[in-house]
Automatic annotation (TrEMBL):
Belongs to the argonaute family. Ago subfamily. Residues 555-874 form the Piwi domain. This is Uncharacterized protein. SMART domains: DUF1785 (SM01163), Piwi (SM00950). Residues 273-382 form the PAZ domain. One of its GO terms (biological process) is regulatory ncRNA-mediated gene silencing. It comes from the Eukaryota.
Length: 918
């Protein structure tokens, strides 16, 4: 019998100890680490304890930890030291790679920091212009000195300035200021420089370790980059261009201080008059004929939110929308119209005669007194970064530019660093920094692929991360006896849809599914404008036909005209949260082509949606899977999706394995939270019933633990948590709080339940890539990309944490970019070889394709579930979007506050039991 759950207000001694363990203040410990670093002059280093267990290549299995092997965690500093004990792996075929990192050697020991105060306050860009003008006008005060400035409060020099505190007045002429400064007629900037401290260069290394970028050495590198620009532009049409620029960033690694250089591609709006931009956008002369409603809608969407500059005052503005034509606008004064037209007002005020009075004006202020500007006086200046989603053709062109062959990328990186420009820079000489000009060589290993198991005891070893289903059947084929099809595309005839469905049923049968060839009802073509009525009407007709036999509809096949608009989201929301029905959508263009490869891929998705398994790992089937096979283990994947609009909530998704030891079937949950909130808030919470006073723990972790026990008959004794998309600045805070939530969810579920937790963060948005050490290197694919399974866990990795770069996909286009796995917490005491092997193997279990994927499937599935949650939210009727709100506390994009976020619709239980999100 389970012990009674304790009530709130009566904490147990054990739970108080658990809470004490996790109530470590991150900032305090960080100060301790920095102090220790300053005292020693280098990063913390610890000896690896003797007797560390290692595994042999023949037996890559997990070694169970002992209680005394795990040190007590009394501070985060102890946690950092604890992770230093894990050595690099040895399993796999050894090889040597080149990476786009260059060794950096600071030759000077100290820098001098000054605090900067600028009045009136302006943006970082204007602050830099003010300091630049100060250095030019007051050159005598800065003899032979090249200071670097972060644009905010910090200025660094290589030598002492001839003063401790000094104020300067700088003329604002030539510096573009904001409207408030101009309105006050402030013609002078007051700059105050105050000496702060002499800074030891090595003492700032720990700031790099903790994810901060505004450290002295990085500021110096950015200043060097300002004068050593590498840029090449490519036109995409409709006023857009891709700028291929250089990326540089300093990193502290096991090898020391490194400069990471890469080629990055960014989308910009070209410098041009607004009228020219609109003509390129519409691909016609807008002066020939009036703008249609669709034209105005497209222009409004493209211009809204971008920054423009007017030519008559030089002021900058943000576009809020469009108005009617210029000759239709009248000027209002307060609440009364003056009767004066906008054209007359503009002529009298600015002595400018508007030529194109039929064109709409730009609305630049949305207050009580709106302000308008004629299009002809507005220009887009200084290459605006484009935040809008490019269309399909532009995206294809963008990807084509960004996909650089490994050899070409390597050449361009070396070109950026060619001729020793970094070392010849005045800033490098001033601050005594030496940059190596050769790519860094690193040691690597290629891990072998896992054996896969299919039906009828058939086993297969993938080659170069790929396999196919030819002469293979799914490990466990699902059952689809009752299905029907709804066609929302007017372009595809019913007979073509019927043939497509028949071919799909044949393919599913050939793959190993029990799939009926005949649908319950014939194909029905429906109006996409009324999805809910169509689906419920179809379901009514189906149930009327099969309910007498006691059967239910297993699958709904839906033909969509395209992947634009809200049709897909509306359909999935109705099927999964209202009706309780699994559906498979197919685009009309694929139905018309009807290729065998497409049908095979759809069959894979259908099988897992109806409870089947496509393939399993042989080591999982035989309970020899590293880190998993010995005791019940649950694997979790988590992701937070942030919307572009600040008014929309972020969507958090957590998926969890539901089968052990196979780890191929995953249940998924999603929740909405405050916009921009990175911490997953619904991992654990304790709701309080105001009417009954009952207290019961809830949250996604608890629900996953319960469903795992129901599915396997075991409580998980080990938790492996893969977390995606956390920025360096929030990394440790998010890890600490989510780890606390996981621990609390376990403790509240059952007394004395304490599974060991391993917390791993995936980082994909980095600029590290690898190249062949020499030509014809057998450790590489024919196109120059590294082989799937290549792992690097030394030299360029984190100096104090255990982390590794793993390339799992077989790159066929462009340069393959590995994923960086950072193990921030490990109570399971995994060895490096065992955990790397597990991560490598998991990448072969993604259900939607027959090749290994770049990131572990739990995180991929969390991405899919977060997208599904976003579709649920967007498809909710406007009148119901304000209902069912839940409080969401924490830092949003506007700061730390408590906001109300509407709940995501709940998925029906029968749908939730399968991988409906695939």
């Amino acid at each position: 019998m389970k012990p009674k759950r304790k009530q709130r207000g009566q904490p147990k001694r054990k739970e108080r100890g658990l809470q004490d363990m996790f109530d470590v203040k991150l900032a305090l410990v960080r100060d301790e680490n920095q102090k220790a670093t300053r005292d020693s002059g280098h990063a913390l280093e610890d000896e690896v304890p003797s007797g560390t267990s290692r595994i042999t290549p023949e037996h890559v299995h997990y070694q169970a930890p002992t209680s005394e092997a795990i040190p007590p965690v009394s501070s985060l500093k102890a946690w950092v030291r604890y992770h230093k004990c894990l050595q690099s792996g040895t399993f796999g075929q050894k090889c040597t790679l080149k990476t786009n990192h260059f060794v950096v050697t600071p030759l000077k020991e100290f820098l001098y920091q000054y605090e900067v105060h600028i009045r009136p306050e302006e943006s970082c860009r204007i602050n830099r212009a003010v300091i630049s003008k100060l250095l030019y006008q007051q050159a005598s005060e800065f003899p032979d000195i090249f200071p670097v400035y972060d644009g905010k409060k910090k200025l660094y020099t290589a030598g002492l300035l001839p003063f401790t505190c000094r104020s300067f007045e700088i003329d604002s002429r030539g510096i573009l200021c904001n409207k408030l400064t101009r309105r006050r007629r402030e013609r002078q900037f007051l700059v105050v420089l105050t000496f702060v401290a002499r800074v030891k260069i090595q003492s700032s290394y720990m700031d790099l370790v903790w994810g901060e970028e505004d450290v002295p050495l990085n500021i110096i590198v950015r200043e060097i980059r300002h004068f050593q620009r590498y840029a090449e532009s490519f036109q995409l049409g409709e006023g857009l261009e891709v700028l291929q620029d250089s990326y540089e960033n300093l990193q502290l690694s096991q090898k020391g201080l490194l400069l990471n250089i890469d080629v990055s591609s960014t989308l910009f709006i070209k410098d041009m008059p607004v009228i020219d931009y609109i003509q390129q956008l519409l691909d016609r002369d807008i002066l020939d004929r009036p703008l249609s409603g669709d034209d105005r809608s497209k222009i409004n969407k493209a211009l809204q939110g971008i920054e423009i500059q007017d030519i008559h005052t030089g002021s900058k503005h943000f576009v809020r929308g469009l108005t009617g034509s210029a000759r239709e606008l009248c000027i209002s004064s307060g609440d009364r119209r003056t009767g004066k037209s906008f054209v007359e007002h503009f002529q009298e005020t600015y002595d400018y005669n508007i030529q194109y009075t039929d064109l709409p004006c730009l609305r630049i202020h949305a207050g009580q007194r709106p302000l308008f500007l004629p299009m002809e006086v507005c220009i887009i200046k200084k290459r605006l970064r484009c935040s809008k989603q490019p269309n399909q053709d532009q995206m294809s062109a963008l990807l084509e530019v960004a996909r650089l062959h490994p050899g070409m990328r390597k050449e361009r990186i070396l070109e950026i660093n060619k001729c020793d420009l970094y070392n010849k820079s005045a800033y490098a000489k001033e601050f005594g920094i030496k940059f190596e000009n050769q790519l860094l060589s690193v040691d690597a290993r290629v891990l072998p692929p896992p054996w896969l198991k299919f039906h009828d005891s058939k086993e297969f070893l993938p080659q170069v991360g790929r396999w196919n289903m030819i002469r293979k059947r799914m490990f466990h084929g699902g059952v689809v006896r009752n299905w029907t099809c709804v066609n929302f595309s007017w372009e595809v005839e019913d007979k073509i849809v019927s043939r497509f469905c028949h071919e799909l049923a044949i393919m599913c049968q050939a793959s190993g599914m029990d799939f009926s060839v005949d649908p319950v009802l014939s194909v029905e073509t429906c109006n996409p404008e009324d999805v809910e009525w169509t689906l419920k009407s179809c379901l009514f007709d189906v149930m009327k036909k099969i309910e007498q036999q006691g059967r239910e509809l297993d699958l709904l096949i839906v033909i969509l005209p395209n992947n634009k608009g809200a049709l897909y989201g509306n359909l999935k929301t109705i099927c999964e949260t209202d009706i309780g029905l699994v559906s498979q959508c197919c685009l009309a263009k694929h139905v018309l082509k009807m290729s065998k490869q497409y049908l095979a891929n759809v069959a894979l998705k259908i099988n897992v949606k109806v409870g089947g398994k496509n393939t399993v790992l042989l080591d999982g089937f035989t309970r020899r899977l590293p880190c998993v096979g010995d005791i019940p283990t649950i694997i979790l994947g988590a992701h937070v999706m942030h919307p572009g609009k600040s008014s929309s909530p972020s969507i958090a998704a957590v998926v969890a394995s539901q089968d052990w030891p196979d780890v191929t079937n995953y249940a998924a949950l999603a929740s909405a939270q405050a916009n921009g909130q990175e911490l997953i808030q619904d991992l654990f919470h304790v709701p309080h019933d105001c009417e009954t006073g009952a207290i019961d723990a809830a949250g996604m972790i608890r629900e996953h633990l319960i469903s795992f026990e129901r599915a396997t008959g075991h409580k998980p004794r080990r938790i492996i948590y893969y977390r995606d998309a956390v920025s360096n600045s929030q990394l440790y805070k998010v890890m600490w709080q989510e780890l606390v939530a996981i621990k609390k969810a376990c403790s509240y579920w059952e007394a004395d339940y304490e599974p060991a937790v391993t917390y791993v963060v995936l980082q994909k948005c980095h600029h590290t890539c690898f190249f062949a050490d020499y030509e014809d290197d057998k450790s590489f694919m024919g196109n120059g990309n590294i082989l799937p399974g290549t792992v690097v866990d030394s030299d360029i990795c984190h100096p104090n944490e255990f982390g590794f770069y793993l390339c799992r996909q077989a790159g066929t286009q462009g340069t393959t970019r590995p994923v960086y796995y950072r193990m921030l917490w490990d109570e399971n005491r995994f060895t490096a070889d065992a955990f790397q092997c597990l991560t490598n193997y998991l990448c072969y279990t993604y259900a939607r394709c027959t090749h290994s994927v770049s990131i572990v499937p739990p995180v991929y599935y969390a991405h899919l579930m977060a997208s599904r949650g976003r579709a649920y939210m967007e498809s909710m009727a406007p009148e119901t979007r304000g209902e069912g709100h839940a409080p969401s506390s924490g830092a949003s994009s506007s700061g730390a506050k408590s906001v109300m976020v509407r709940r995501i619709p709940v998925v029906k239980d029968n749908v939730k039991r399968v991988m409906f999100y695939c």
